[in-house]
Amino acid sequence: MDHVTGLRCRECGRQFPAEALHVCDYCFGPLEVDYDYRGIAAVVSRGRIAEGPRSIWRYRDLLPVDDDAPVDLGAGFTPLVRADRLAAELGLGELWIKDDTANPTGSFKDRVVSVALTKARQLGFKVAACASTGNLANSVAAHAARAGMTSVVLIPHDLETAKVTMTAVYGGTVVSVEGTYDDVNRLCAELTSERPTWAFVNVNIRTYYAEGSKTLAFEVAEQLGWEAPDHVVVPIASGSQLTKVAKGFAELGEVGLLDRRPSVRISGAQAAGCSPVATAFAEGADAIRPVKPSTIAKSLAIGNPADGWYALSAIRDSGGGCAAVTDDEIRAGIRLLARTEGIFAETAGGVTIATLAKLAASGVVRRDERVVALVTGHGLKTVEALSPGTGPTVTIAPTLSAFDEAVTVVDDLGGSEDRGATPPPA
Ligand SMILES: *Cc1c(COP(=O)(O)O)cnc(C)c1O
Ligand SMILES: [Zn+2]
User: What's the maximum distance between 2 C-alpha atoms anywhere in the chain?
Assistant: First the structure.
Protein backbone atom coordinates (compact mmCIF):
# COMPACT_ATOMS: atom_id res chain seq x y z
CA MET A 1 0.00 0.00 0.00
CA ASP A 2 2.96 2.36 0.02
CA HIS A 3 2.05 3.62 -3.45
CA VAL A 4 -0.97 5.34 -1.83
CA THR A 5 0.06 8.29 0.31
CA GLY A 6 -3.41 8.96 1.73
CA LEU A 7 -6.59 10.83 0.94
CA ARG A 8 -6.78 14.49 0.11
CA CYS A 9 -9.70 16.94 0.03
CA ARG A 10 -10.41 18.03 -3.54
CA GLU A 11 -11.46 21.47 -2.29
CA CYS A 12 -9.14 22.55 0.56
CA GLY A 13 -6.30 20.07 0.04
CA ARG A 14 -6.23 18.78 3.64
CA GLN A 15 -4.80 15.29 3.99
CA PHE A 16 -6.32 12.23 5.62
CA PRO A 17 -5.25 8.61 6.17
CA ALA A 18 -6.38 5.97 3.63
CA GLU A 19 -9.39 4.81 5.67
CA ALA A 20 -13.14 4.63 5.10
CA LEU A 21 -13.50 8.40 4.79
CA HIS A 22 -15.27 10.21 1.99
CA VAL A 23 -15.81 13.83 3.01
CA CYS A 24 -13.49 16.42 4.46
CA ASP A 25 -14.19 17.24 8.12
CA TYR A 26 -13.34 20.88 7.52
CA CYS A 27 -15.10 21.89 4.31
CA PHE A 28 -17.24 18.85 3.37
CA GLY A 29 -15.36 18.54 0.08
CA PRO A 30 -15.04 15.06 -1.44
CA LEU A 31 -11.82 13.15 -0.82
CA GLU A 32 -9.51 11.89 -3.52
CA VAL A 33 -6.88 9.13 -3.35
CA ASP A 34 -3.34 10.49 -3.46
CA TYR A 35 -0.50 8.43 -4.91
CA ASP A 36 3.26 8.51 -4.81
CA TYR A 37 3.62 8.97 -8.58
CA ARG A 38 7.41 9.11 -8.48
CA GLY A 39 7.50 5.80 -6.64
CA ILE A 40 4.99 4.28 -9.07
CA ALA A 41 6.90 5.58 -12.10
CA ALA A 42 9.97 3.76 -10.81
CA VAL A 43 8.26 0.34 -10.85
CA VAL A 44 5.46 0.49 -13.42
CA SER A 45 6.14 -0.32 -17.07
CA ARG A 46 4.27 -1.41 -20.18
CA GLY A 47 5.96 -4.81 -19.88
CA ARG A 48 4.95 -5.29 -16.26
CA ILE A 49 1.36 -4.47 -17.18
CA ALA A 50 1.41 -6.85 -20.16
CA GLU A 51 2.40 -9.69 -17.81
CA GLY A 52 -0.54 -8.97 -15.51
CA PRO A 53 -4.00 -10.56 -15.57
CA ARG A 54 -6.44 -9.75 -18.39
CA SER A 55 -8.57 -7.66 -16.06
CA ILE A 56 -8.47 -4.28 -14.33
CA TRP A 57 -5.95 -5.77 -11.90
CA ARG A 58 -3.17 -5.50 -14.50
CA TYR A 59 -3.18 -1.81 -13.48
CA ARG A 60 -2.93 -2.48 -9.74
CA ASP A 61 0.05 -0.11 -9.42
CA LEU A 62 -2.40 2.72 -10.14
CA LEU A 63 -5.32 1.41 -8.07
CA PRO A 64 -5.89 2.33 -4.40
CA VAL A 65 -5.61 -1.18 -3.00
CA ASP A 66 -2.89 -3.76 -3.11
CA ASP A 67 -4.18 -7.30 -2.69
CA ASP A 68 -2.84 -10.53 -4.16
CA ALA A 69 -6.36 -11.96 -4.22
CA PRO A 70 -8.73 -9.09 -5.04
CA VAL A 71 -12.51 -9.52 -5.09
CA ASP A 72 -12.55 -10.41 -8.75
CA LEU A 73 -14.98 -11.77 -11.33
CA GLY A 74 -12.74 -10.70 -14.21
CA ALA A 75 -13.88 -7.10 -14.67
CA GLY A 76 -12.20 -5.09 -17.38
CA PHE A 77 -9.90 -5.65 -20.33
CA THR A 78 -13.01 -5.52 -22.48
CA PRO A 79 -12.79 -5.26 -26.29
CA LEU A 80 -11.87 -2.00 -27.99
CA VAL A 81 -13.56 -2.39 -31.36
CA ARG A 82 -12.74 -0.38 -34.48
CA ALA A 83 -16.11 0.87 -35.73
CA ASP A 84 -15.69 1.80 -39.40
CA ARG A 85 -19.29 1.20 -40.44
CA LEU A 86 -20.63 3.39 -37.62
CA ALA A 87 -17.96 6.01 -38.36
CA ALA A 88 -19.08 6.15 -41.99
CA GLU A 89 -22.71 6.71 -40.96
CA LEU A 90 -21.71 9.52 -38.60
CA GLY A 91 -19.25 11.14 -41.01
CA LEU A 92 -16.32 10.40 -38.72
CA GLY A 93 -12.84 9.06 -39.47
CA GLU A 94 -11.24 6.79 -36.88
CA LEU A 95 -13.84 5.62 -34.36
CA TRP A 96 -13.54 2.95 -31.66
CA ILE A 97 -16.13 1.47 -29.32
CA LYS A 98 -14.99 0.51 -25.83
CA ASP A 99 -17.35 -2.42 -25.33
CA ASP A 100 -18.02 -2.63 -21.60
CA THR A 101 -21.10 -4.75 -22.22
CA ALA A 102 -18.58 -7.60 -21.98
CA ASN A 103 -18.03 -7.21 -18.23
CA PRO A 104 -19.06 -10.04 -15.85
CA THR A 105 -22.41 -8.52 -14.86
CA GLY A 106 -22.81 -6.68 -18.15
CA SER A 107 -21.79 -3.15 -17.23
CA PHE A 108 -18.81 -0.96 -16.46
CA LYS A 109 -19.82 -1.00 -12.77
CA ASP A 110 -17.83 -4.22 -12.31
CA ARG A 111 -14.67 -2.11 -12.57
CA VAL A 112 -15.57 0.14 -9.66
CA VAL A 113 -17.12 -2.59 -7.51
CA SER A 114 -14.15 -4.94 -7.79
CA VAL A 115 -11.95 -2.14 -6.43
CA ALA A 116 -14.49 -1.04 -3.79
CA LEU A 117 -15.10 -4.48 -2.31
CA THR A 118 -11.41 -5.38 -2.32
CA LYS A 119 -10.77 -2.24 -0.28
CA ALA A 120 -13.85 -2.81 1.91
CA ARG A 121 -12.71 -6.31 2.77
CA GLN A 122 -9.24 -5.04 3.56
CA LEU A 123 -10.74 -2.43 5.89
CA GLY A 124 -12.62 -5.22 7.70
CA PHE A 125 -16.18 -4.63 6.44
CA LYS A 126 -18.44 -7.70 6.22
CA VAL A 127 -21.48 -6.08 4.61
CA ALA A 128 -21.45 -4.50 1.15
CA ALA A 129 -24.22 -1.98 0.53
CA CYS A 130 -25.13 0.61 -2.09
CA ALA A 131 -27.71 2.91 -3.58
CA SER A 132 -28.09 2.03 -7.22
CA THR A 133 -29.79 2.93 -10.49
CA GLY A 134 -29.54 -0.80 -11.31
CA ASN A 135 -26.14 -1.75 -12.63
CA LEU A 136 -24.33 -1.03 -9.40
CA ALA A 137 -26.84 -3.26 -7.59
CA ASN A 138 -26.13 -6.10 -10.07
CA SER A 139 -22.43 -5.77 -9.57
CA VAL A 140 -22.37 -5.32 -5.79
CA ALA A 141 -24.62 -8.36 -5.28
CA ALA A 142 -22.42 -10.49 -7.59
CA HIS A 143 -19.07 -9.40 -6.17
CA ALA A 144 -20.32 -9.74 -2.59
CA ALA A 145 -21.38 -13.30 -3.38
CA ARG A 146 -17.94 -13.93 -4.86
CA ALA A 147 -16.25 -12.52 -1.75
CA GLY A 148 -18.52 -14.30 0.73
CA MET A 149 -19.80 -10.95 1.98
CA THR A 150 -23.39 -10.04 2.80
CA SER A 151 -25.00 -7.55 0.42
CA VAL A 152 -27.76 -5.01 0.94
CA VAL A 153 -28.71 -2.95 -2.08
CA LEU A 154 -31.25 -0.16 -2.34
CA ILE A 155 -32.90 0.60 -5.67
CA PRO A 156 -35.70 2.85 -6.93
CA HIS A 157 -38.93 0.84 -7.29
CA ASP A 158 -39.30 1.43 -11.06
CA LEU A 159 -36.18 -0.31 -12.37
CA GLU A 160 -36.09 -2.60 -15.38
CA THR A 161 -37.10 -6.22 -14.63
CA ALA A 162 -33.78 -7.66 -15.76
CA LYS A 163 -31.81 -5.42 -13.41
CA VAL A 164 -33.90 -6.52 -10.43
CA THR A 165 -33.59 -10.23 -11.33
CA MET A 166 -29.88 -9.88 -12.03
CA THR A 167 -29.46 -8.51 -8.51
CA ALA A 168 -31.81 -10.73 -6.52
CA VAL A 169 -30.40 -13.95 -7.99
CA TYR A 170 -27.17 -13.56 -5.98
CA GLY A 171 -29.07 -13.98 -2.73
CA GLY A 172 -28.47 -10.65 -1.02
CA THR A 173 -31.07 -8.28 0.38
CA VAL A 174 -32.71 -6.09 -2.28
CA VAL A 175 -34.66 -3.12 -0.94
CA SER A 176 -36.99 -1.45 -3.43
CA VAL A 177 -37.63 2.15 -2.40
CA GLU A 178 -40.67 4.17 -3.45
CA GLY A 179 -38.78 7.16 -4.74
CA THR A 180 -36.19 8.33 -7.24
CA TYR A 181 -32.52 7.42 -7.16
CA ASP A 182 -31.84 10.71 -5.42
CA ASP A 183 -34.27 9.70 -2.65
CA VAL A 184 -32.56 6.29 -2.40
CA ASN A 185 -29.16 7.93 -2.23
CA ARG A 186 -30.24 10.30 0.54
CA LEU A 187 -31.58 7.33 2.50
CA CYS A 188 -28.25 5.56 2.02
CA ALA A 189 -26.33 8.57 3.30
CA GLU A 190 -28.51 8.48 6.45
CA LEU A 191 -28.03 4.72 6.79
CA THR A 192 -24.27 5.14 6.53
CA SER A 193 -24.16 7.04 9.83
CA GLU A 194 -26.55 4.51 11.44
CA ARG A 195 -24.60 1.46 10.18
CA PRO A 196 -20.92 2.36 10.40
CA THR A 197 -19.94 -1.31 9.95
CA TRP A 198 -21.43 -1.48 6.46
CA ALA A 199 -19.42 -0.58 3.38
CA PHE A 200 -21.67 1.61 1.22
CA VAL A 201 -19.67 1.44 -1.97
CA ASN A 202 -20.92 4.77 -3.29
CA VAL A 203 -20.95 6.57 0.06
CA ASN A 204 -18.29 5.78 2.69
CA ILE A 205 -16.13 3.75 0.24
CA ARG A 206 -16.81 6.06 -2.73
CA THR A 207 -13.30 7.52 -2.72
CA TYR A 208 -11.87 4.07 -3.54
CA TYR A 209 -14.78 2.87 -5.66
CA ALA A 210 -14.48 5.81 -8.04
CA GLU A 211 -10.82 5.01 -8.80
CA GLY A 212 -11.90 1.85 -10.64
CA SER A 213 -13.17 3.98 -13.52
CA LYS A 214 -9.62 5.08 -14.35
CA THR A 215 -9.04 1.62 -15.82
CA LEU A 216 -11.18 2.64 -18.81
CA ALA A 217 -8.53 5.21 -19.75
CA PHE A 218 -5.70 2.79 -19.03
CA GLU A 219 -7.19 0.07 -21.24
CA VAL A 220 -8.02 2.40 -24.11
CA ALA A 221 -4.43 3.67 -24.17
CA GLU A 222 -2.92 0.19 -23.91
CA GLN A 223 -5.27 -1.23 -26.58
CA LEU A 224 -4.34 1.63 -28.93
CA GLY A 225 -0.71 0.52 -28.61
CA TRP A 226 0.04 2.92 -25.74
CA GLU A 227 -1.30 5.98 -27.46
CA ALA A 228 -3.99 8.32 -26.22
CA PRO A 229 -7.08 8.96 -28.32
CA ASP A 230 -7.91 12.55 -29.31
CA HIS A 231 -11.48 12.51 -28.04
CA VAL A 232 -13.52 10.29 -25.72
CA VAL A 233 -17.31 10.38 -25.33
CA VAL A 234 -18.47 9.35 -21.85
CA PRO A 235 -21.99 8.95 -20.42
CA ILE A 236 -22.75 10.89 -17.24
CA ALA A 237 -24.82 9.73 -14.26
CA SER A 238 -23.10 11.01 -11.09
CA GLY A 239 -20.21 12.27 -13.24
CA SER A 240 -17.68 10.08 -11.47
CA GLN A 241 -16.73 7.96 -14.49
CA LEU A 242 -16.05 10.97 -16.69
CA THR A 243 -13.96 12.68 -14.02
CA LYS A 244 -11.90 9.54 -13.48
CA VAL A 245 -11.36 8.89 -17.19
CA ALA A 246 -9.73 12.33 -17.31
CA LYS A 247 -7.64 11.48 -14.23
CA GLY A 248 -6.65 8.14 -15.77
CA PHE A 249 -5.18 9.70 -18.92
CA ALA A 250 -3.35 12.32 -16.87
CA GLU A 251 -1.83 9.61 -14.66
CA LEU A 252 -0.52 7.70 -17.67
CA GLY A 253 1.48 10.79 -18.60
CA GLU A 254 2.49 11.35 -14.98
CA VAL A 255 4.07 7.91 -14.52
CA GLY A 256 5.60 7.74 -18.01
CA LEU A 257 3.36 5.04 -19.53
CA LEU A 258 2.55 7.54 -22.27
CA ASP A 259 5.41 9.46 -23.78
CA ARG A 260 4.05 12.86 -22.96
CA ARG A 261 1.17 14.20 -20.93
CA PRO A 262 -1.72 13.43 -23.28
CA SER A 263 -4.32 16.01 -24.22
CA VAL A 264 -7.57 14.11 -24.61
CA ARG A 265 -10.79 15.99 -25.26
CA ILE A 266 -13.59 14.57 -23.13
CA SER A 267 -17.24 15.00 -24.04
CA GLY A 268 -20.22 14.13 -21.86
CA ALA A 269 -23.44 12.37 -22.86
CA GLN A 270 -26.77 12.64 -21.04
CA ALA A 271 -30.43 11.85 -21.57
CA ALA A 272 -32.61 14.93 -22.16
CA GLY A 273 -34.90 13.63 -19.40
CA CYS A 274 -32.05 13.96 -16.90
CA SER A 275 -29.44 16.40 -18.15
CA PRO A 276 -28.26 18.66 -15.34
CA VAL A 277 -24.64 18.63 -16.58
CA ALA A 278 -25.47 19.14 -20.28
CA THR A 279 -27.80 22.00 -19.30
CA ALA A 280 -25.12 23.71 -17.20
CA PHE A 281 -22.66 23.26 -20.07
CA ALA A 282 -25.07 24.76 -22.61
CA GLU A 283 -25.82 27.72 -20.32
CA GLY A 284 -22.19 28.30 -19.38
CA ALA A 285 -23.36 28.01 -15.78
CA ASP A 286 -21.14 27.83 -12.70
CA ALA A 287 -23.35 25.43 -10.79
CA ILE A 288 -25.38 22.31 -11.50
CA ARG A 289 -29.13 22.70 -10.99
CA PRO A 290 -30.70 19.41 -9.77
CA VAL A 291 -33.57 17.99 -11.84
CA LYS A 292 -36.26 15.33 -11.40
CA PRO A 293 -35.38 12.56 -13.89
CA SER A 294 -37.76 11.18 -16.49
CA THR A 295 -36.00 9.04 -19.09
CA ILE A 296 -35.69 5.46 -20.34
CA ALA A 297 -31.95 5.72 -19.53
CA LYS A 298 -32.54 4.74 -15.91
CA SER A 299 -28.92 3.83 -15.25
CA LEU A 300 -28.05 7.49 -15.89
CA ALA A 301 -31.03 8.96 -14.05
CA ILE A 302 -29.30 10.88 -11.29
CA GLY A 303 -30.93 14.27 -10.93
CA ASN A 304 -28.44 15.63 -8.40
CA PRO A 305 -25.06 14.28 -9.57
CA ALA A 306 -22.44 14.13 -6.80
CA ASP A 307 -19.56 14.68 -9.23
CA GLY A 308 -21.50 16.77 -11.73
CA TRP A 309 -19.47 19.90 -11.13
CA TYR A 310 -16.16 18.03 -11.44
CA ALA A 311 -17.35 16.36 -14.65
CA LEU A 312 -18.34 19.75 -16.08
CA SER A 313 -14.91 21.16 -15.18
CA ALA A 314 -13.13 18.18 -16.76
CA ILE A 315 -15.14 18.67 -19.97
CA ARG A 316 -14.39 22.40 -20.10
CA ASP A 317 -10.70 21.99 -19.20
CA SER A 318 -10.25 19.41 -21.97
CA GLY A 319 -12.04 21.42 -24.65
CA GLY A 320 -14.78 18.82 -25.03
CA GLY A 321 -18.53 19.25 -25.39
CA CYS A 322 -21.65 17.96 -23.68
CA ALA A 323 -25.10 17.26 -25.08
CA ALA A 324 -28.34 15.48 -24.26
CA VAL A 325 -30.57 13.25 -26.36
CA THR A 326 -34.26 12.33 -26.28
CA ASP A 327 -35.66 8.88 -25.53
CA ASP A 328 -36.36 8.34 -29.25
CA GLU A 329 -32.79 9.31 -30.09
CA ILE A 330 -31.57 6.87 -27.41
CA ARG A 331 -33.55 4.03 -29.00
CA ALA A 332 -32.22 5.00 -32.42
CA GLY A 333 -28.69 5.05 -30.99
CA ILE A 334 -29.09 1.51 -29.62
CA ARG A 335 -30.36 0.30 -33.01
CA LEU A 336 -27.66 2.13 -34.96
CA LEU A 337 -24.84 0.58 -32.92
CA ALA A 338 -26.39 -2.88 -33.14
CA ARG A 339 -27.01 -2.61 -36.89
CA THR A 340 -23.60 -1.23 -37.82
CA GLU A 341 -21.27 -2.98 -35.38
CA GLY A 342 -23.09 -5.95 -33.87
CA ILE A 343 -22.99 -4.57 -30.33
CA PHE A 344 -26.21 -4.49 -28.31
CA ALA A 345 -26.09 -1.79 -25.66
CA GLU A 346 -28.47 -0.80 -22.91
CA THR A 347 -30.08 2.64 -22.87
CA ALA A 348 -26.91 4.29 -21.49
CA GLY A 349 -25.05 3.04 -24.58
CA GLY A 350 -27.84 4.51 -26.71
CA VAL A 351 -27.23 7.82 -24.93
CA THR A 352 -23.52 7.68 -25.77
CA ILE A 353 -24.03 6.80 -29.44
CA ALA A 354 -26.85 9.30 -29.99
CA THR A 355 -24.82 12.04 -28.30
CA LEU A 356 -21.78 11.11 -30.38
CA ALA A 357 -23.96 11.48 -33.49
CA LYS A 358 -25.16 14.88 -32.31
CA LEU A 359 -21.65 16.12 -31.46
CA ALA A 360 -20.34 14.82 -34.79
CA ALA A 361 -23.12 16.63 -36.68
CA SER A 362 -22.35 19.88 -34.88
CA GLY A 363 -18.61 19.56 -35.49
CA VAL A 364 -17.61 19.20 -31.83
CA VAL A 365 -16.36 15.66 -32.53
CA ARG A 366 -14.25 15.99 -35.66
CA ARG A 367 -13.47 13.74 -38.60
CA ASP A 368 -9.72 14.20 -38.13
CA GLU A 369 -9.82 12.93 -34.55
CA ARG A 370 -9.22 9.44 -33.19
CA VAL A 371 -12.46 9.02 -31.24
CA VAL A 372 -13.44 6.49 -28.56
CA ALA A 373 -17.05 6.08 -27.39
CA LEU A 374 -17.65 4.31 -24.07
CA VAL A 375 -20.52 1.82 -24.32
CA THR A 376 -21.09 0.95 -20.68
CA GLY A 377 -23.91 -1.59 -20.35
CA HIS A 378 -25.49 -4.58 -22.11
CA GLY A 379 -28.76 -4.35 -24.01
CA LEU A 380 -30.29 -7.39 -22.33
CA LYS A 381 -30.59 -5.28 -19.19
CA THR A 382 -33.08 -2.88 -20.79
CA VAL A 383 -34.94 -4.85 -23.46
CA GLU A 384 -38.23 -3.17 -22.55
CA ALA A 385 -36.83 0.10 -23.90
CA LEU A 386 -37.05 -1.39 -27.42
CA SER A 387 -40.22 -3.46 -27.18
CA PRO A 388 -42.70 -3.14 -28.69
CA GLY A 389 -41.22 -2.16 -32.03
CA THR A 390 -38.31 -4.57 -32.20
CA GLY A 391 -39.51 -8.04 -33.09
CA PRO A 392 -39.94 -10.42 -36.01
CA THR A 393 -39.93 -8.82 -39.47
CA VAL A 394 -42.87 -11.04 -40.44
CA THR A 395 -44.68 -14.04 -38.99
CA ILE A 396 -45.53 -16.81 -41.49
CA ALA A 397 -46.96 -20.31 -41.80
CA PRO A 398 -44.28 -23.06 -41.96
CA THR A 399 -44.36 -23.41 -45.77
CA LEU A 400 -42.01 -22.49 -48.58
CA SER A 401 -44.70 -20.55 -50.40
CA ALA A 402 -45.49 -18.47 -47.32
CA PHE A 403 -41.78 -17.70 -46.99
CA ASP A 404 -41.43 -16.73 -50.65
CA GLU A 405 -44.48 -14.55 -50.48
CA ALA A 406 -43.49 -12.69 -47.32
CA VAL A 407 -39.72 -12.46 -47.40
CA THR A 408 -37.65 -10.33 -49.75
CA VAL A 409 -34.01 -9.96 -48.81
CA VAL A 410 -31.69 -7.75 -50.79
CA ASP A 411 -28.24 -9.24 -50.43
CA ASP A 412 -24.82 -7.73 -50.78
CA LEU A 413 -24.59 -8.61 -54.50
CA GLY A 414 -27.08 -5.89 -55.20
CA GLY A 415 -30.03 -8.13 -56.00
CA SER A 416 -29.21 -8.24 -59.75
CA GLU A 417 -31.06 -10.51 -62.18
CA ASP A 418 -28.20 -12.93 -62.76
CA ARG A 419 -27.80 -13.61 -59.03
CA GLY A 420 -28.65 -17.24 -59.65
CA ALA A 421 -25.43 -17.61 -61.68
CA THR A 422 -23.23 -16.51 -58.82
CA PRO A 423 -21.92 -19.53 -56.93
CA PRO A 424 -22.59 -19.45 -53.22
CA PRO A 425 -19.58 -18.56 -51.07
CA ALA A 426 -17.45 -21.59 -50.16
C1 LIG B 1 -23.28 4.05 -13.55
C2 LIG B 1 -23.24 4.04 -15.01
C3 LIG B 1 -22.57 5.03 -15.77
C4 LIG B 1 -21.87 6.25 -15.24
O5 LIG B 1 -21.91 6.48 -13.94
P6 LIG B 1 -21.24 7.70 -13.16
O7 LIG B 1 -22.09 7.78 -11.94
O8 LIG B 1 -21.33 8.93 -14.00
O9 LIG B 1 -19.86 7.30 -12.86
C10 LIG B 1 -22.55 4.88 -17.13
N11 LIG B 1 -23.14 3.84 -17.75
C12 LIG B 1 -23.78 2.88 -17.07
C13 LIG B 1 -24.40 1.77 -17.84
C14 LIG B 1 -23.85 2.94 -15.69
O15 LIG B 1 -24.50 1.97 -15.03
ZN1 LIG C 1 -11.65 20.18 2.65
Answer: 80
Whether 58 lines ligand 1, by a CB cut-off of 6 Å, is no
Q: How far apart are CA 102 and CA 344, in angstroms?
A: 10
- Return the exposure string of 34-61: e unless at least 16 CB atoms fall within 10 Å of the residue's CB, then b: ebebeebeeebeeeebeeeeebbbbbbb
- Residues 370-390 pLDDT 10s: 999 999 999 999 999 998 788
Q: Which ligand is nearest to the CA of 379?
A: 1
Q: Structural domain boundaries of the chain?
A: 80-106+211-386
Is the distance from CB of 341 to CB of 85 less than 8 angstroms?
yes
Ligand 1 close to Cβ of residue 241 (< 6 A):
yes
Q: With a 6 A CB cut-off, is 236 part of the ligand 1 pocket?
A: yes
Residue 260 confidence (pLDDT)? 82
User: What is the atom index within ligand 1 of the atom nearest the CA of 311?
Assistant: 8
pLDDT digits (tens, 9 = 90+) for 185-210: 999 989 988 998 999 998 999 999 99
Angle between helices 347-361 and 327-341 (to 10 degrees): 90
Q: Under CATH, which architecture does the 80-106+211-386 domain have?
A: 3-Layer(aba) Sandwich (3.40)
Q: Is the CB of 239 under 6 A from ligand 1?
A: yes
Q: How far is the CA of 320 from the centre of ligand 2 (A)?
A: 28
- State the Cα–Cα distance between residues 418 and 365, nearest whole angstrom: 43
Q: Which of 67-81, 113-127, 249-263, 411-425 has the lowest mean pLDDT?
A: 411-425
Dihedral sign of CA atoms 2, 215, 302, 274 in order: positive
Which ligand neighbours the alpha carbon of 310 most closely?
A: 1
Distance in Å, CA 8 to ligand 2 centroid: 8
Q: Tell me, using a 6 A CB cutoff, whether residue 135 lines ligand 1.
A: yes
Q: Is 376 in the pocket of ligand 1 (CB under 6 A)?
A: yes
Nearest to 137 by CA among 197, 195, 66, 188: 188
Strand 173-177 and strand 265-271: the pairing is: unpaired
The reported pTM is 0.94
